Amino acid sequence: MTADAETRDAKPGADVEIRAEDGRLASGFIESVASAISSNDAARVRELAGDLHESDLGDLIETLEHDDRPKLIELLGKDFDFAALTEIDETVRVQLLEELPPETVAKGMRGLDSDDAVYILEDLDEVDRAKILDQIPALERVALKRSLDYPEDSAGRRMQTEFVAAPQFWTVGHLIDYVADTDELPETFYTIFVVDPAYKLLGSVPLDRLLRARRSKLLSDILEENPRTIRATEDQEDAARTFERYNLVSAAVVDDGGRLVGVLMVDDILDVIEEEADEDLRALGGVTGDEEISDPVFYTARSRIPWLLVNLVTAFFSASVIGLFEGTIEQMVALAVLMPIVASMGGNAGTQTMTVAVRALATHDIGGHNARRLIRRETLVGLFNGVICAVVVACIAGLWFQNAQLGAIIACAMVMNLVCAGLFGILIPLGLERMKFDPAVSSGVFLTTVTDTVGFFSFLGLATWWFGLGGPH
Amino acid sequence: MTADAETRDAKPGADVEIRAEDGRLASGFIESVASAISSNDAARVRELAGDLHESDLGDLIETLEHDDRPKLIELLGKDFDFAALTEIDETVRVQLLEELPPETVAKGMRGLDSDDAVYILEDLDEVDRAKILDQIPALERVALKRSLDYPEDSAGRRMQTEFVAAPQFWTVGHLIDYVADTDELPETFYTIFVVDPAYKLLGSVPLDRLLRARRSKLLSDILEENPRTIRATEDQEDAARTFERYNLVSAAVVDDGGRLVGVLMVDDILDVIEEEADEDLRALGGVTGDEEISDPVFYTARSRIPWLLVNLVTAFFSASVIGLFEGTIEQMVALAVLMPIVASMGGNAGTQTMTVAVRALATHDIGGHNARRLIRRETLVGLFNGVICAVVVACIAGLWFQNAQLGAIIACAMVMNLVCAGLFGILIPLGLERMKFDPAVSSGVFLTTVTDTVGFFSFLGLATWWFGLGGPH
Q1: How does this protein sit in the membrane (chains A, B) (predicted)?
Q2: Which residue on chain A is closest to B331 by alpha carbon?
Q3: B247 close contact with A: CB closer than 8 A
Q4: Which of residues 139-168 of B touch A (CB under 8 A)?
Q5: Most Cβ neighbours (<10 Å): which of A362, A443, B330, B386?
Q6: The complex's ipTM?
């Protein structure tokens, strides 16, 4: 650790390093907090964890034993920053919120920006949510409820309802004085929004542009017209693409009438992008649902079993293809030894294509203009790599079983299966997308069914035909 | 499309919609541009594409036919925004840069922020890069070369060397006047950095904090001490984690002596996060290397073949396990029909565990404190789901082959394989990470080898033992 990093993490009053070199919370620090909690030493807990950044505090909560979590919050008292709850896994958060008294939660949430408060409230069930909302002053409650009325995963849910807006006839100087004199502005803002009396968005003024302008200028002279806006009902993923595409730091959220209702900040978008990439990745790995690393055994097992059962069905389907050739295998057991090779190589090649296709669909990199080219490319890549693998597999299999004809047959089957793998590796995700299914979730099952079936059928079928063996029953 | 979205995308002078409803470039727009290019109509090209945002322009370049790309840049002339080159695939960018005259590129790059210029230059080979650098004025050239000296994928490569820095004895008013009066400030900035005469970073002042302060205040009174900084040599992925963790919008980049050398912006970090998630996802799907959607067949095939050959080796290894039981299979062909089911279910369950583990390692969610718990959890999940799958598979297989004992044997093998899948699904990524290998890249090969081997061996071995069949040769 360099001197600089040390300075950064050292905290006044605390004698313990917070983070280890790899960026994880240091185990010494965790133990100090845990022991202070178990001895009910509020002063020591506050000294150790009272000034932590919300993100460090969140990590700390996740790391602590289940029973220590509410105790930590209790011991920290008013030093506990409820924003930390936005940084922890949903399972842990929901559990914790159910254990804390609603008054404590309501009081803690009043200091939060509305997007954080909504984030914390949205996963609770109706009853728990109502209990907490009841404790919140009417004005804030209405704002929170309005956000919660937007659909899940919409921009309206992620937006912050605190923002700085000004009329177009204000001067730069007037606005700067207003900002300096007003206490209840949002904690952080990067842009001033210019609105008409009905809050219809007229334009935006980034702070750096404001600073560069003379005090006497009118806002209407320096505003950026038609800034990129996000509709409140828009999916958060689409909003994230807009942020990425146009390198935004914050964006106005407007209702269907073009009225300013909130602002989306880039730090929330970072989380959205990470979440969405995560979802695709998990879906491709057969982990659907919102499983988290902190979930218990039963919950995890239950969320994973549906996928396994679906795969079991397709596995029986492929097995039934092998069953057609029982007579052939009886006469030539070498076929049973070699057949999984053809199937598994098809699966691997197909997965390569599918991974690229699914990701490109997610980032909108495939469209009408290049779909045909990609289908052609993937099929040719399958042919090309099929031939290379075929040569290798033919040599090894031929030598192993001292049978050149067997080598030739497995080579042909390999080429067929890898061409199919490339073709279906792209056609399946494209088809699912067109039918409005999520290609990340279900492409894999269909693809493996194709590559297993084609793999077994082509290899065993060719062998039956060529060697004139038992043949299909 | 709502009225608002229309206003947003409608452009003065252009009579064509730029983006279709799904966010992709509209095909009508692409065709208009292509036909204007083919008829060498510079005025029409400028009218259509002259005012495009760099990101739209980048998408347009990618979508155009290969030969039309340099023509577009030529026809746009000085209206072409070279920042668009940062928005396109590396393959397309490198090709395009090689085709354009170095003087044109050098001239276009002079208008760019240094991070964009470095991004464009870094993928070129030495010779091409030198040719372009030679055309750039000395001062800018030195800054670019310094950035290029930092290791690939380091924060130093991604940082912008233009920033606003001020001494601590300046007042807020002095700084605001300076900003209003100075022309060559960076295009966008969110923070003022406070430095000593040797450019050692003393603190930072976010613009909103600056606006809230009285003009007479000293910067030293309002600066945020010990702001989060990034070391220039730090990996961009670590920098991204810091941005995410502390919700940063920009961060000072310092050298080993704590001197301010640049600033990292959140929009570059968005790209890094997307890239890294993409890399993990592709690696898990067996797509290593930097393959892009625009790559030609041969390049794609070549980049994918190594992974297929590695898998071919492991497939032969599993086949050799089957080979041990040729005698058994000869006597009971049903085993050959059913054995892929056991192996494939192990592969699927193991992949679920591995996916979760690899992603948690990437986001630093697994550490010393929870590794043991996770190993225990995954093994128990394997046991739990193994039992469920075993019951299902036993019933179907027993009925299919009218053999209850066969059903019992496949059930036992299934449980064994799913427990191993869970255990190794987490141990393999953890082990690879500890040995400093990238778990996303190679966990899959090892895991499939384990689940195939255990699947075949347990099922065929149990059957051989129970039915007293041929046994290993």
Answers
A1: Multi-pass membrane protein
A2: A330
A3: yes
A4: none
A5: A443
A6: 0.78
Q: What is the pLDDT of residues A239-262, one digit of tens each?
A: 998 998 888 899 999 999 889 999
Angle at B371 between CA B368 and CA B377, to 5 degrees: 155
Q: Mean pLDDT over all residues of chain A?
A: 87
How far is A178 from A165, CA to CA, in rounded Å?
11
Tokens linked to A244: 């990425």
State the CATH number of the domain containing residue A33. Answer: 1.25.60.10
- Amino acid A15: pLDDT: 60
Question: B134-166, pLDDT tens digit by residue?
Answer: 888 888 888 888 888 999 889 999 999 889 999
Q: Are strands A191-195 and A165-167 parallel, antiparallel or unpaired?
A: parallel
What's chain A's length in residues?
473
**A473 falls within a domain:** no
CB contact under 8 A, A297 and B384: yes
Q: How far apart are CA A369 and CA A367, in angstroms?
A: 5
Q: What tokens appear for B319 in the block?
A: 């086949």
pLDDT band at residue A470 using 50, 70 and 90 as cut-offs = low
Specify whether A149 is located in the same domain as A169. Answer: no
CATH of the domain at B183: 3.10.580.10
Confidence of residue A124 (pLDDT cuts 50, 70, 90): confident
Q: Are A241 and A98 found together in one domain?
A: no
Q: Which of A107, A130, A153 is the last residue of a domain?
A: A153
Residue-wise pLDDT tens digits, A177-194: 898 888 888 888 999 999
Share of chain A above pLDDT 90, in %: 43
Provide the 3-class DSSP secondary structure of residue A250.
strand
A 166-195 residues with CB below 8 A of B?
A: 176, 179-180, 185, 188-190
Range of the domain at A198: 165-284
Top pLDDT among B344 and A290 is at B344
User: Is residue A230, in this structure, part of any structural domain at all?
Assistant: yes
Q: Is B270 strand, coil or helix?
A: helix
Exposure string over A326-356, b if 16+ CB within 10 A, otherwise e: bebbbbbbbbbbbbbbbbbbbbbbbbbbbbb
Please check whether residues B144 and B46 belong to one and the same domain: yes
B159 is a domain residue: no
Angstroms from A98 CA to nearest CA on chain B: 23
**H/E stretch holding B193:** strand B191-195
- Distance separating alpha carbons of residues B404 and B190, to the nearest angstrom: 72
Burial (CB count <10 Å: 0-12, 13-18, 19+), residue A66: exposed
Q: Could you give the CA distance from residue A202 to residue A193 in angstroms, rounded to a whole number?
A: 8
Residue found under tokens 């299914």: A437
> Closest approach of chain B CAs to the CA of A134, in angstroms?
30
Assigned domain for B318 exists? yes
Q: Is the pLDDT of residue A7 over 60?
A: no
What is the pLDDT at residue B22?
67
- Chain A, chain B: beta-carbon pairs less than 8 Å apart: 359
In this structure, the answer to whether residues A253 and A366 fall within a common structural domain is: no
| CA B430 to chain CA centroid, nearest Å | 21
The Cα B231–Cα B358 span in angstroms is 26
Q: Report whether A340 contacts B259 (CB < 8 A).
A: no
Give the minimum alpha-carbon distance from B139 to chain A in angstroms, rounded to a whole number: 25
pLDDT of residue A397: 95
Q: Do B206 and A188 touch (CB under 8 A)?
A: yes
Please name the helix (run of DSSP H) or strand (run of DSSP E) that holds residue B58, with its range, or none.
helix B54-63
Position A12 pLDDT exceeds 60: no
Own/partner pairs, A83-87, CB within 8 angstroms, 24+ separation: A83/A54, A83/A112, A83/A113, A83/A116, A84/A52, A84/A54, A84/A55, A84/A57, A84/A58, A85/A58, A85/A61, A85/A120, A86/A54, A86/A58, A86/A116, A86/A119, A86/A120, A87/A54, A87/A55, A87/A57, A87/A58, A87/A59
Tell me if B167 sits within 8 A of B228, measured CB to CB.
no
Q: What's the total number of domains in chain B? A: 3
Interface of B with A in 52-71 (CB under 8 A): 53, 55-56, 63
